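In this section we walk through a basic example: taking a raw amino acid sequence and producing a predicted 3D structure, encoded as discrete structure tokens. The instruction is simple. Fold the sequence below.
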Amino acid sequence: PDHVKAQCEGGLIYGISCAIGQITALNGEITQSNFHDYLVARMPQTPVTIDVEIVETEALPGGVGEPPTPPAAPALANALFAATGQRFRNLPIPLNIKTA
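The resulting token sequence is shown next.
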């Protein structure tokens, strides 16, 4: 269970990183060559705790790291709307958000 939770946490952090970062192109070429020049959250920038609930099921086991990634951006956008009253409908979400 701890490995499953860790995979879910990693997928969530990566999804949030994708929501606030962007890949850029210049003259038709991607400017980021690897993770050293792409904004991906590092350990000091992540929450101290993330609550992951594992639901028992009769279904066959499957991947656990990928499913948390896609809903992370809309969840972040909704949380920011709840906190600021400002809707974010495009990615990346700007880092300079004005509070309500």
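Looking at the output, two observations stand out. The first strand starts at residue 25 and ends at 26. Strands lie at 25-26, 29-30. In the next section we compare this with other chains.
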